């Protein structure tokens, strides 16, 4: 049996497929190992969560969605497999199957590498033996295939496996060697990243492999950068994949949700925060950080971003010293980020497009009063672009319409994909047996695989559409108003299985 929680993990990672998502996400940016940043960010999150009617993703919820952790250690899982083996030898095959399934769920959450792969192989081989004893030859072959598809030269130990089992294993090996393969190509935005399938290291990017068609767990690692765990579907003649490890590797869940931010990368961090909010399905992302001006006190700052529009809604902060933030200042900042107003003068807001920690350094140029309380209108992320574009041309307005139209088409397509995926979820729920998918139920397995495909499509549509809308809006603001806006039409269509979008206009 396949545990249905695999499907729900997919839906949690891509909530547009069915699970309701919290409205807000709090993520720190900067040095993710900074104890002061972690302490104040955690205090801010606790203050926000304790406020009435606040739907905020918790730190544990963030970790579970992006980096699910095992609840058992390697040693615990080995003991569980030993117990399952005892059940097998004592002909308690049903209990053995349940114990192995539960162990596999936890094994798939372990850090990738040889230790995880060894446990995985032991579990699958025991599964194969147990199913064979139950007279389920097809399920037994599936378990053995899980090992052979990535290690085709694997040999069974003659001290533990009967000759008939080894003969069947070798026959399956020959069949798999003759089976048609899928060309799987994996690339990363960080070169020479380690590629893991089902926890086994297969090589480094750029990597091209011939693999059997099916579903695999994919992870990329380079140094401390670790990709989000994902299930991929290898199918057709080839399956090309590009993983933005520069983005995914900057995200960490411990000790606090954080985006690693090198100096001078504010725009990139805000862009990554928008993408992260889209992945988790929240409406707003609150990025908190410690600002250290070249002169003057430190600031604990918060920037509120709208995910759908890619906008910076508001920004403010308070002066801070030491690890602990003043409770009154934290409460005032929570009021500010949730309402746009603050009754306390402890919180200084971003006035006229310039943050107070910047004003302290450049007050001679801006003339803005330090501690001003005016709230600027929402501005798009690329403020630096606006400063440099002194003489925009009409072509920018044309480009903005194209980007906005394309982005809206992609987001509209995402809505259609969500609708189609929900139908799959509803159909799949009807075929469950005690919350699980029977491995013999081909239709249920097809529905599960279809959900995996739609999740990949949805991720691309959300990320691409959001980026296009944000870029189009920036160009729109930079360009002069034409006499008559170019007519642009956007269309989204579906035939029940595929989605198409069209853009037309006269420029």
UniProtKB/TrEMBL annotation:
InterPro entries reported in the protein's UniProt record: PEGA
Any transmembrane segments, and where? Answer: 398-421, 456-478
Q: Which Pfam families match?
A: PEGA (PF08308)
Q: Which UniProt keywords apply?
A: Membrane, Transmembrane, Transmembrane helix
Domain of life, source organism: Bacteria
The PEGA domain covers which part of the protein? 183-222
Name the record gives this protein: PEGA domain-containing protein
- Protein source organism: Myxococcus llanfairpwllgwyngyllgogerychwyrndrobwllllantysiliogogogochensis
The organism's lineage?
Bacteria, Pseudomonadati, Myxococcota, Myxococcia, Myxococcales
